[in-house]
Design goal:
Layout lengths: L17 E7 L16 E2 L2 E2 H11 L4 E6 L3 H7 L6 E5 L6 H6 L2 H4 L4 E6 L7 H14 L3 E7 L8 E4 L5 E5 L13 E10 H9 L14 H8 L4 E5 L12 H16 L8
Length: 268
């Protein structure tokens, strides 16, 4: 039996400090380039710039970039941003390990967004909704989700009989019924800092690859009796993966179309 979870948040949301951990350590071998994956340009900016700009526009006060492969290029490109700090992932041991590498750099933030650095379609408006929903629900973890026509390859969001979060199931581990689920995890997370890093310290490596996965953390928190909030607000268009130059070109077209309808060029 688990003890009742301690409250994750302070009482006045306006006093809370948010941080964002952006995972930017991967090489992106399928891109056919020696550049770090997040440094590939799309619609005039690097993929990472799009994600950092969206986090800043959502009101995040502290941004921690977890770097690894080609980190000198990433550090140089981000050197003019005053609110960006860096954490190094020396070994590529998965998204959970990468997030844990940022623990000291996050400081005393109340809430921690965790985002993928190779997701330039991310919208500041969705991140603002995610942070607000997380605080209003006093959740330990909150996930923004998307419903897409073809969920192949994505982690599925499994809900219980009451429609509440149960777990994230990856494609390779899903049952036939679970693989029919079209609600997926686009990797937009918001956590209470204490519960996030406590769970990360207790993560066990994947049995096959030996990596530590962030996707396990919401299920762990749910199992401990914490509330995990779901926000089904990510547009299907925003979930496009970028693993090839062809996919990069498609996302470039989408972002340029957005920019043409937004004269300021600010993240929406």
């Amino acid at each position: 039996m688990h003890a009742s979870p301690e409250p994750t948040h302070v009482t006045n949301p306006s006093d809370q400090v948010s941080a964002a951990v952006i995972l930017a350590a991967g090489k992106g071998t399928r891109m056919g380039s020696d550049l770090p994956k997040v440094m590939h340009e799309v619609a005039g900016k690097s993929m990472l710039d799009w994600v950092v700009d969206a986090a800043e526009a959502a009101g995040v006060q502290r941004i921690v970039l977890v770097v690894g492969y080609g980190q000198e290029l990433v550090r140089d490109a981000m050197s003019t941003r005053d609110n960006v700090a860096f954490a190094e992932q020396v070994e590529q041991l998965g998204t959970g390990h990468a997030t844990l590498c940022a623990e000291s750099a996050v400081g005393d933030a109340d809430d921690v967004l965790v985002l993928a650095g190779d997701g330039p379609l991310i919208r500041a408006s969705v991140l603002r909704q995610l942070i607000a929903s997380h605080r209003q629900s006093s959740a330990a973890a909150s996930l923004a989700t998307a419903r897409i026509d073809d969920p192949t390859g994505y982690g599925r969001i499994v809900r219980d009989s009451d429609g509440q979060f149960s777990e994230i199931v990856e494609q390779k581990n899903g049952s036939a019924d679970q693989l029919q689920i079209c609600e997926v995890n686009p990797s937009y997370y918001c956590f209470g800092r204490h519960v996030l890093f406590e769970a990360l310290h207790g993560l066990r490596p994947d049995a096959t690859g030996g990596e530590y996965y962030l996707t396990d953390v919401p299920g762990i928190l749910k199992g401990q009796g914490h509330h995990v909030e779901l926000l089904d607000e990510v547009p299907q268009e925003d979930v496009l993966s970028i693993n090839t130059i062809e996919q990069l070109s498609r996302v470039d077209d989408i972002l340029r179309s957005r920019l043409s309808s937004n004269a300021t060029g600010a993240p929406s």
